[in-house]
Amino acid sequence: xxxxxxxxxxxxxxxxxxxxxxxxxxxxxxxxxxxxxxxxxxxxxxxxxxxxxxxxxxxxxxxxxxxxxxxxxxxxxxxxxxxxxxxxxxxxxxxxxxxxxxxxxxxxxxxxxxxxxxxxxxxxxxxxxxxxxxxxxxxxxxxxxxxxxxxxxxxxxxxxxxxxxxxxxxxxxxxxxxxxxxxxxxxxxxxxxxxxxxxxxxxxxxxxxxxxxxxxxxxxxxxxxxxxxxxxxxxxxxxxxxxxxxxxxxxxxxxxxxxxxxxxxxxxxxxxxxxxxxxxxxxxxxxxxxxxxxxxxxxxxxxxxxxxxxxxxxxxxxxxxxxxxxxxxxxxxxxxxxxxxxxxxxxxxxxxxxxxxxxxxxxxxxxxxxxxxxxxxxxxxxxxxxxxxxxxxxxxxxxxxxxxxxxxxxxxxxxxxxxxxxxxxxxxx
Length: 429
Fold this sequence. Notes:
The chain has a single domain, classed as Outer membrane efflux proteins (OEP). The protein has helices at about 5-20, 35-45, 50-65, 105-175, 180-215, 235-245, 250-270, 305-310, 310-375, 380-415, and strands at about 30-35, 75-80, 95-100, 220-225, 275-285, 290-300. Strand 5 and strand 6 form a beta hairpin. Helix 3 (about 50-65) runs antiparallel to helix 4 and helix 4 (about 105-175) packs antiparallel against helix 7. The protein is an alpha+beta fold.
């Protein structure tokens, strides 16, 4: 995904607008209410791990300045002819010198290339972390939606249990069922109450996880503005693989490292290019006019094999190492895209099947069992069993919706961009 500064700024502005809109007239803020996109933008702006990565990018930029900086000159002086160390005034002469080392011009360029490649690699590392944070925040948001859906299903299940208890008590009062049926209905209602207590814990944990990604206090109040839905169909796998090769920040970062390693090899091979040392000194002696000395020096790579077998060989092997790493990373990216695509496709099919097949049949079976029980045709066990099947189907459907949306968010991370921006992408999420 393109998590650039503009997107972050817009997301933070949107989040700020929502926060301002939800403030009460008395000044007491109401629970923060954000949709999935706003939650992601808030995480991108406030997540502490991203701040660490941004500081590392700035550190890399500072290293570029150091790499291409011109060496500071040196100033030295001495006094001569002292009669003793304790009597500097007895000197008969002194020398003042100014020295400057000038690296070969091409070395400035190569060091700059290496430094800028390091900056690019740091920026792609930041982009990768932003994409991972966005995916994790989306999954945390969906986990909260799943917990909310489970809670709503349990509330509906409790309503059904209460309705069945009232119907059973009415039939017991009419003498058409045994007291055991009433006891079973009360047990079912108690189980519903117990399940609701457990769901409160799940809601608290889900909110805390999402707040952590958004850089908020774990116990801060939060309300989700979105709801769970079956995501749209997936684009073609081949197109997603091509998108991953073009967009994955890991590949781009490694390509930048290879570019920098190539410059490092060229710099190492420049050992025979001399760094020039220039000096200017004033020589003064008592009773004689001052004289001046100019000096010029440069390194002589006489023992050249120390360089070719040392820094040059190291730089060359570093290039080979990065080339092999790049090929391996390409294979990892392909595998990542394929595995996440398979997971997203399977989760989407399961969610669609539960929505279109299992859930309607389970609801219809419960309604038939309840009506039949009211007419005296079925037993309490039949109704309770049908209710349990319905609740299980609703729970599976909520989990499947969460899994489908999570898998889609993970697939977007795997290709490095939103699915809508990929070739063949359809729908919105």
